Amino acid sequence: MEFVWEWFYWLYDVHGIKLTIFYDEWDRNRFIRGMWTTFHLSALSIFLSIVIGVAGAWLQMSNLVWMRRIVQAYIQFFRNTPPLIQLYFFYFAVDAALSQLFGITGGVLGSYGWAVVSLSFFAGAFNVEIFRAGVESVPRSTTEAAEALGYTRLQIYRYVTLPLAFRVCLPSLNSNLINLLKTTTVAYAIAVPETLYVANQIWSDEYNVFEMMNVVWIVYIVFVGFLVWLMHRWEKSIKIPGYGN
Amino acid sequence: MGEVHQDTGVRKLNVRGTSRHVHGAKTDLPVIKPFVIGNAGGRYIEGMLEFTFQWRIGVALFLTLAGWMMIDAAHAQVQGDPEQTIFQTLIKWTPLMFWGPSGEFGGFILNIVVSFISMALGTFFGLWVGIGQVSPNRHLRRFCWAITQLFRNSPWLVLLFYFMLLLPFSLQFGDIRVDIPGWTKATFALSLPIMANVSEIVRGAIASIPTGQWESAESLAFSRTQTMWRVILPQCIKRMIPPWMNWYCILTMSTPLISILGVNDGMTLTQNALAAEGRSEFLIPMYLWLMLWFFVYSYPIAMWTRRLEHKFAIES
Amino acid sequence: MNNLNWASDQPIVSLKNVHKSFGDLEVLKGVSLDVMQGEVICIIGPSGSGKSTLIRCINALNDIQSGSITVEGQEVHDPKLNKLELRKKVGMVFQQYNLFPHKTALENVMMAPVLVLKQNKDDVARLAQTLIRKVRLDGKEHNYPGELSGGQQQRVAIARSLAMNPQVMLFDEVTAALDPETVKEVLVTIKDLAAEGMTCILVTHEMGFAREIADQIYFTDGGVIVEHGPPETFFSRAKDPRTKEFLSQIL
User: Fold this and answer.
1) Is A96 within 8 Å of chain B by CB?
2) Option in A76, A84, A94 nearest B299 (CB)
3) Smallest CA–CA separation between A154 and chain B, in Å?
């Protein structure tokens, strides 16, 4: 490994390309921590947004008109307002209000916590619609066939509707989750030390904006590319011949 | 079957539903015609429902607002400053948040202008890159594909940083120095992901046109350019409109990102107003107030998009 | 654009030992046939026997691996050939009509002469009206394809090809996608054309029609022409067992 770091130092020495994240241990470590933060911030938000999506889709099928309306209002609010303002709203406004309400000093959740909450609600709003469309895409005749075979309602849902619905909505789910990964950069605005934020710290200290900007861009392309690849493989592996498309 | 709709010209409105069951007349594609209006009775009833629904929502909103203002006034009284109700504070800052400081270009209007220009630029270049993606020239095709993938998969904020920091702040033409305002660079940066996504929309729409259309144009001796512009693209427009409008909404929702890079947009000015007031009970109403503007702007577009999507799905 | 090397007593379309493969799959394995001017030939055979590929090669929608195809004495698969000139001479009608759905019937017919031949728009409009009348669609000029039945669309497609004033017409299973009751109107239109002396090459499943209209019937199977002859002898005195079997299944 050592000679790689040395090569980058040579690159700086001879060509003036200042990639401190390779030869400076302090910068390297904080940049790796930044990427790791992006990783678990995305993973956690993806997980929670899927939970919100499934729960929301289930609530939207409820017989209670008001329940459906509340879910609908949630979806429309988060879809039609800017994610950055949502984040500020949670981090500054909601946090302050909750602190006052419960008499807590120093905030209810930190910036990381509110970023997770905000991003999950944002992507969750899209997931609700994606999952609902999936469930609606399962033909009535298919569930009727299961009913005729004596399946219970829960069995129909578990063994017929969900597996089919899931395959139908996977492509749109993929693009929404990829979008979520890209949106995690917004957490920069509330000083969550993710990749972009850390890179900003590094270029402020080292005056290597150009180098770091390119590194950040490449890192995100690789992250997104990896997620795209992963989701496509998954999509392919559970594809049923002749179903969908 | 033969003679269906003897007397229907192009002016026939109710095409939906009536001629669809003529199974000999199946076309692969929706036809571009003046927008079809659904049957009059249904539309009337639909309109009535919409009206009652909105009327009830209106009353609910009015009551909520009235209730809130009363509490608001009472609260200000208790705080010992009856002039500083939340409502009054919102009204006070609204012109700044909406138009920007006097004599300057900024505020919510700047967000909207940026979204317009970015969309126009992104659409223009996206169209060409999209056509390039199906070019018979392999190198051009690969290049356009790479451009599309690169900007589609980059986070918008990273692109904003990249072009805001790396494009020059001013240009020197001999003795004349021209400053490049930050918002123009931001507009350019935001147009790039739009370009990439429009490119994908165009490519997808072209790919969805049956090959028979290409072949029949070819056998009529059309050149490739003629086929593309006269036969293929006109058929694509209709199916491109809903996703294109969807991207416009996404773009508009992303414009506050430019506040992170110091552009005086609605978000920045709202933050400034909050800092000037320095009172935490204004946080929620101020943010909600700004979000409401975006909502009022975006929601009708989103609904319209959904309606078009639904209509085109039924027609084809 | 007349080829000086070609005289009207020579075949207008001539295929010599044509081979065509899609990847590893050889679809045409040495096909030869001659069509004289004014002749109507029908190509029949089981599905997958290469009939459609055969006529698509004639106007260069598909390329060929070896052999030669000439139209009016000109090699179709010569890389130097101007494909535009070929396509002005050879009109084609498809199974799926392939009308341009965003143009009215009249506009569909007018488009190619205006765009490709750069003819005067008013003249073309008059010509198109005549052609629409010829295919018996008066009154439907301003309808969109989506508002016409399959048979009507197919007749517009025929008029659209005729507007280019071709020397040869190719018909690729033009009635296969139609409802039985609309098949007849399309066949009548083709019959009119043949009666006027248009050179026609048809791929068809309509045996009765082929018998009535064709000068020569070609039977293809497995990428080769198994046998051919005038309809009078072809249907009653087929020699090859494959032809016999096919005819016994279909008649």
Assistant:
1) yes
2) A76
3) 31
Q: Which of A74, A88, A121 to mutate to test the interface with B (most CBs of B within 10 A)?
A: A88
User: What residue of B is the nearest CA neighbor of C185?
Assistant: B2
Q: Where are the domains of chain A?
A: 40-237
Least confident of A183-192, B40-49, B148-157, C154-163: B40-49
- Contact: B219, C90; criterion CB under 8 Å: yes
Please state the length of chain B.
316
- Per residue, what are the HEC states of B266-291? HHHHHHHHHHHHCCHHHHHHHHHHHH
Q: Domain A40-237 is in which class?
A: mainly alpha
Residue numbers in A near B299 (CB within 8 A): 76, 80
Other C-beta atoms closer than 10 Å to the C-beta of C134 total 17
Q: What percent of chain C has pLDDT over 70?
A: 98
Read off the tokens for B79: 């705080």
Contact B85, B72 (CB under 8 A): yes
- Is-contact A115 A41, C-beta < 8 A? yes
Chains that touch B (3 or more CB pairs under 8 A): A, C
Which member of B26, B32, B230 has the closest CB to residue C115?
B230
Q: Do A89 and B267 touch (CB under 8 A)?
A: no
Structure ipTM: 0.90
Answer yes or no: do A216 and B287 touch at CB < 8 A: no
Per-residue pLDDT of chain B (316 residues; tens, 9 = 90+): 333 343 333 333 333 333 333 333 333 333 333 333 334 344 444 444 454 556 777 788 888 888 877 787 777 777 766 667 778 888 888 888 898 888 888 899 999 999 999 999 999 999 999 999 999 999 999 999 999 999 999 999 999 999 998 888 888 888 888 888 889 999 999 999 999 999 999 999 999 999 999 999 999 999 999 999 999 999 999 889 999 999 999 999 999 999 999 899 999 999 999 998 888 888 888 999 999 999 999 999 999 998 898 888 777 6
**Residue type at A21 in one-letter notation:** I
Domain positions in chain C = 13-250
Q: Token pair for residue B59?
A: 């009353």
The model's pTM is: 0.83
Taking an 8 Å cut-off on Cβ atoms, the answer to whether C104 and B223 are in contact is: no
- Nearest-by-CA chain C residue for B315: C146
Q: Bridge-partner residues for B177, per DSSP? A: B172
pLDDT at B36: 37
Taking the alpha carbons at both ends of chain C, their separation in whole angstroms is 44
Chains with at least 3 CB pairs less than 8 angstroms from chain C:
B
Residues in chain C: 251
Contact yes or no for B164/B185 (Cβ under 8 A): yes
Q: How many CB pairs under 8 A join B and C?
A: 120
Interface of B with C in 22-41 (CB under 8 A): 22-33
Return the half-sphere exposure (C-beta side, CA atoms, 13 A cut-off) of residue C211: 10
Angstrom distance (rounded) from CA B222 to CA C118: 11
Q: How far is C118 from chain B (nearest CA, A)?
A: 11
Domains of chain B (ranges, CATH numbers): 107-210+240-315 (1.10.3720.10)
As assigned by CATH, the class of the C13-250 domain is: alpha beta
With beta carbons less than 8 A apart as the criterion, state whether B238 and B32 touch.
yes
C161, C93 contact by CB (below 8 A): yes
Residue B124 distance to chain C (closest CA, Å): 23
